[in-house]
Write a structure and sequence with these properties.
This protein is of the alpha/beta class. Helix content is 35%, strand content 20%.
Length: 330
């Protein structure tokens, strides 16, 4: 096992994809000689040439549309959208073309592509460069949605994603880029829709993805000091979503908190809670709770950003609320 950063895992995953399949190429802004705004493609142009690591203009719709066209013609593009906020500029290519190509052509045409992007708060980039928007894409049939939390999962999930016959949105939280973790050599592909238990517990289940997994683990440590045993589940992918692992956990904890950095209103946590209530209602000793961010644009100022973004403190508070609710007399 090696210890590498999340960012190094992203870079290695792309390099391995380029090396193993001549159909793979990367498109994005400032990804060539500059190496990407966060250095996720550093040295890849030098190693593989500018015909396979292609700098693109600031035109997300055109870039993503070109990626769809290349995928339909037999290539396997990796398209980097520099900030997740800017997927809004390319929604037509993603939602109406990439995700629907296979269905609208009777499976005669496919769009096997990975759309890499990063987002999230904690770096004080303000309202237009800090959003967590993956919940938008749960409503798009034909598109897989991956949100890794560790370097190992970056490499394993990316290896699976780049080999699929349909488009994948691969979402990274930039606050994780400098975090480290053990990585096997080689890393086996990780199937989509397969969550993992990061911490065992008996009293409350917390389900999360990405950075929120680390916050859930921090909240679990805090609650341990109060005598509360928290089980933490990393879903790893949101489409497909591993509801079964959550239901299995609820069979012994009987309480659920779902944590994400996205705005709580309309977030993917509501989908998981709905599924749990429909399929595991009898296991619940308390209403499932969500720990999401406030419904307001993300401020630039550190203090204001921290006041509205979901974090380990909010997750711990929701855990306490779940236990209090369970103990109230009927």
């Amino acid at each position: 096992m090696r210890e590498i950063t999340f960012l190094e895992a992203v870079r290695e995953a792309q390099a391995e994809a380029l090396a193993s399949d001549d159909r793979v190429f990367i498109m994005g802004q400032e990804i060539g000689s500059y190496g990407g705004v966060f250095r996720a493609t550093q040295d890849l142009e030098r190693r593989f040439g500018d015909h396979r690591v292609r700098d693109m203009p600031i035109a997300e719709q055109s870039m993503l549309g070109a990626g769809v066209g290349a995928a339909v013609m037999g290539m396997r593009p990796i398209v980097e959208v520099m900030f997740m906020d800017f997927v809004a500029c390319g929604m037509d290519a993603i939602v109406n073309h990439a995700a629907k190509m296979r269905y609208m052509s009777g499976d005669q045409l496919r769009a096997p592509m990975v759309i890499r992007t990063q987002g999230g708060s904690g770096t004080h980039h303000g309202s237009q460069h800090s959003q967590t928007l993956e919940s938008w894409f749960l409503h798009v049939p034909g598109l897989a949605l991956v949100v890794p939390s560790t370097p190992q999962d970056v490499k394993g999930l990316f290896k699976t994603s780049v080999a699929l016959e349909h488009p994948v949105l691969f979402v990274e939280h930039r606050a994780l880029y400098r975090t480290t973790g053990p990585v096997a050599d080689p890393v086996a592909p990780i199937p989509l829709g397969q969550g993992v238990i990061r911490r065992r517990g008996d009293d409350v289940t917390v389900a999360a993805v990405g950075k929120s997994v680390h916050q859930a683990l921090a909240a679990a440590l805090e609650m341990e000091q109060e005598g509360v045993s928290v089980e933490v589940i990393d879903l790893r992918t949101l489409v497909p979503m591993d509801v079964d692992i959550v239901l299995e956990s609820l069979s012994h904890t009987h309480r659920l908190v779902v944590a994400h950095e996205a705005v709580e209103r309309g977030g993917w946590a509501g989908e998981l809670v709905s599924r749990v209530v429909a399929e595991g209602f009898d296991e619940l000793d308390a209403p499932p709770l969500r720990a999401g961010s406030k419904a307001t644009p993300i401020p630039f100022a550190r203090e204001l950003e921290e006041a509205m973004i979901s974090d380990e403190r909010l997750i711990a508070r929701r855990i306490r609320e779940s236990l209090d609710l369970a103990e109230r007399p009927a």
